[in-house]
C-alpha cells in the first residue's frame, strides 16, 4: 500500500467500485497498472496544460489531479505501456486537443455526470474566455480548496463572471469584519452569495446583515475560538448555521440567539440537526417556527423521537388535551387510536387534525413533554390487534404484510382492530401504497380526510395514481363537485371511470337536459346503483330511456367490470 499515493487510492476506492461508469477501454488496463496509468496521465496532462496551454503550473496540476473521469475517458483511447505511457499521452494531446472546460469543471468538484450540461457552447479552450479560470485562480490563491470551488459555481455562477480584482475586493471586505482567510473561506463556501457582491467595493444589504450575525456569533460570543483552524471545520460550522437561514430565520436578527446557544453548533452533527428539522417539518408548520424552536431549546436535539412507543390517547392527555375533546376524538377517529411509534407522531396528529395544536404546545414551552413521556407496559393494548398481529407472523407472506402494516402506521393508523381490517383490503407493497397515498395528497386531499377515506374504503389505495387522478379530474371538472363530496361517498373512486361513471353521469345529464327526468339523483345513486336496479329505474323514468341508454351511452359493462 505504500507505493499507492493517497490521492490515487482515494479515487480508486471511490470510483472503481462502479466500473460501469468508466470507459470500456480503460477497464481493460490490468488493475495492478491502473494507478500507474493515472499517475502518468496526470503528469502528462499537467505538462500539456502548463507548457502548451500556458496555464500556471499549480493550477494545471489542480486540474489534472482532480479530473478523474475526464482523464480516464481521455486515456481509454491510448495504448497502455508500462514504460512509455506518459510519452504516449503527451503525443496524443499534441494532435487531439481536449475540451479544457470539461476537465476544469470536474476538477473543481462538480459531478462528472453534470459537467456536460455546464460546458459553454462553441468554446473549447480557456484562451477563448479566461474569466472562469481567472476567477478560480483568484479564489485558489486566497486559499480556497480547488476541488471545492464547484460548490460556489453551482450555487452562484456570477462569482465566476467577476474579475479577479472584484473577487479580491469582496474577499477583503469580508476580512474587514474581523475574520482571517480560513474563516472567510468557510463562510463563503457555506454562503456563496456573499461573494456575489453589489460592486467592486460594495456588499449588498442581505450580505451585511448576515455578516453582522456571524461577527456576533464568532467574535462577540467567541465561537470562532472553538473551531479548528482549517477550512473543513469552518465550512462545517457555517453550514450548520446556514440551516437556520434556509428555514427562513431573518438575517441580522438571530446572531445573539445563535451565540448564546453556540454549543448547539459545536456538539451536534449536522445530520442530527437535519433529522430533527425533518421530523418537525412533518407537522406542516412554518419552517421558521421549527428553526426558532431548536435555537431556543437546543436540548430537544437529545430527544429520541424515533424509537419509543406511544399511546395516542396517552400522548394527548400528556400534552393537556381536555377529557371532552379526547372523548370526541375517540368517536371520530377510532382507527388512529391505540399504540404507535414516536417517529409517526406528526402524521398521527395530522390524521387527527391536531398537528398545529401539538406543535404550538411544543413550541410554547412544552417541548420537554416529548422527552419525558413514558408508556406503561399494559397501556392501550388492543387484543384484537395483537391476535391479528400474531397471525401475520405465521402467514404465507409475513414480510410483505408487515410492510403494508408499517405503511398504515406511518400515515397515522394505530395498533387497533380497525387498522387490521383496512390491512386486509389494501393490495400492493408498502412503497406502492405510500406512492398512491402521496399521489392522493398531491391531488388536494386533506391528510385527515384522506385517512378517513382509507378507513371507510380501503380499496381506494389499490389503484394506480394516474387512474385516481382521472376520476378526480372528472368529478371536479365535468361533474362540478369538490373533493369534499368524497367525504360522503368515498367509494366513488373505486368505480370504473369509462365503464360506469362517465356513461351513467352523462346519460342522466342528457335525461335532465331533455326534460325526461325531473328528479335530482345524487352522484352516489347514479354511480353505485346495481346494474339491474339501474335498468329498472330507467324504465320507470321514461319509455324511451332504455333504448337511448343501450344505443348511445351504455358501455355494455357487467357488474364485474364496474369497479377498478
TrEMBL record:
Coiled coil: none annotated. Keywords: Transcription, Transcription regulation, Transcription termination, Transit peptide. The keyword Nucleus does not apply. The keyword Transcription applies. One of its GO terms (biological process) is DNA-templated transcription termination. One of its GO terms (molecular function) is nucleic acid binding. SMART domains: Mterf. Belongs to the mTERF family. This is Transcription termination factor MTEF18, mitochondrial-like.
Amino acid at each position: 500500500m505504500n507505493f499507492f499515493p493517497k490521492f490515487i487510492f482515494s479515487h480508486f476506492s471511490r470510483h472503481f467500485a462502479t466500473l460501469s461508469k468508466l470507459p470500456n477501454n480503460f477497464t481493460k488496463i490490468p488493475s495492478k497498472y491502473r494507478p500507474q496509468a493515472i499517475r502518468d496521465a496526470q503528469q502528462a496532462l499537467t505538462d500539456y496544460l502548463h507548457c502548451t496551454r500556458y496555464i500556471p503550473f499549480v493550477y494545471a496540476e489542480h486540474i489534472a489531479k482532480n479530473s478523474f473521469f475526464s482523464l480516464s475517458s481521455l486515456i481509454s483511447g491510448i495504448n497502455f505501456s508500462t514504460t512509455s505511457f506518459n510519452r504516449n499521452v503527451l503525443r496524443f494531446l499534441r494532435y487531439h486537443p481536449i475540451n479544457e472546460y470539461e476537465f476544469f469543471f470536474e476538477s473543481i468538484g462538480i459531478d462528472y455526470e453534470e459537467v456536460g450540461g455546464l460546458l459553454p457552447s462553441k468554446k473549447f479552450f480557456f484562451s477563448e474566455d479566461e474569466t472562469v479560470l481567472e476567477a478560480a485562480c483568484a479564489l485558489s490563491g486566497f486559499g480556497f480548496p480547488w476541488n471545492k470551488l464547484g460548490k460556489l459555481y453551482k450555487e452562484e455562477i456570477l462569482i465566476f463572471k467577476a474579475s479577479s480584482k472584484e473577487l479580491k475586493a469582496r474577499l477583503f471586505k469580508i476580512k474587514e469584519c474581523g475574520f482571517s482567510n480560513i474563516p472567510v473561506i468557510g463562510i463563503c463556501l457555506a454562503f456563496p452569495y456573499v461573494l456575489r457582491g453589489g460592486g467592486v467595493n460594495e456588499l449588498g444589504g442581505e450580505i451585511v446583515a448576515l455578516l453582522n450575525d456571524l461577527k456576533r456569533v464568532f467574535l462577540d460570543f467567541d465561537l470562532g475560538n472553538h473551531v479548528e483552524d482549517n477550512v473543513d471545520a469552518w465550512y462545517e460550522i457555517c453550514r450548520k448555521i446556514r440551516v437556520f437561514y434556509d428555514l427562513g430565520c431573518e438575517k441580522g436578527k438571530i446572531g445573539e440567539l445563535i451565540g448564546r446557544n453556540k454549543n448547539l453548533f459545536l456538539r451536534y452533527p449536522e445530520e442530527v440537526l437535519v433529522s430533527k428539522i425533518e421530523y418537525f417539518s412533518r407537522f406542516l408548520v412554518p419552517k421558521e417556527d421549527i428553526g426558532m424552536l431548536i435555537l431556543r431549546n437546543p436540548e430537544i436535539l437529545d430527544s429520541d423521537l424515533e424509537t419509543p412507543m406511544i399511546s395516542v390517547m396517552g400522548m394527548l392527555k400528556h400534552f393537556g388535551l381536555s377529557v371532552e375533546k379526547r372523548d370526541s376524538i375517540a368517536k371520530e377517529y377510532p382507527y388512529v387510536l391505540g399504540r404507535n411509534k414516536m417517529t409517526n407522531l406528526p402524521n398521527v396528529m395530522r390524521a387527527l387534525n391536531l398537528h398545529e395544536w401539538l406543535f404550538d404546545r411544543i413550541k410554547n414551552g412544552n417541548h420537554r413533554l416529548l422527552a419525558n413521556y413514558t408508556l406503561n407496559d399494559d397501556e392501550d393494548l388492543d387484543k384484537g390487534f395483537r391476535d391479528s398481529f400474531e397471525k401475520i407472523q405465521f402467514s404465507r407472506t409475513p414480510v410483505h404484510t408487515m410492510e403494508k402494516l408499517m405503511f398504515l402506521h406511518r400515515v397515522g393508523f394505530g395498533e387497533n382492530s380497525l387498522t387490521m381490517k383496512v390491512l386486509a383490503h389494501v393490495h400492493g407493497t408498502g412503497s406502492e401504497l405510500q406512492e398512491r397515498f402521496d399521489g392522493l395528497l398531491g391531488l388536494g386531499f386533506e391528510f385527515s380526510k384522506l385517512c378517513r377515506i382509507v378507513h371507510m374504503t380501503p380499496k381506494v389505495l389499490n389503484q394506480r395514481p394516474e387512474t385516481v387522478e382521472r376520476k378526480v379530474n372528472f368529478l371536479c371538472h365535468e361533474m362540478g363537485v369538490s373533493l369534499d363530496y368524497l367525504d360522503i361517498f368515498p367509494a366513488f373512486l373505486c368505480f370504473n371511470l369509462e365503464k360506469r361513471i362517465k356513461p351513467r353521469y352523462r346519460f342522466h345529464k342528457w335525461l335532465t337536459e331533455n326534460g325526461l327526468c325531473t328528479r335530482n339523483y345524487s352522484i352516489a345513486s347514479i354511480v353505485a346503483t346495481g346494474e339491474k336496479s339501474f335498468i329498472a329505474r330507467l324504465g320507470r323514468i321514461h319509455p324511451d330511456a332504455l333504448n337511448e341508454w343501450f344505443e348511445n351511452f351504455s358501455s355494455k359493462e357487467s357488474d364485474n367490470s364496474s369497479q377498478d
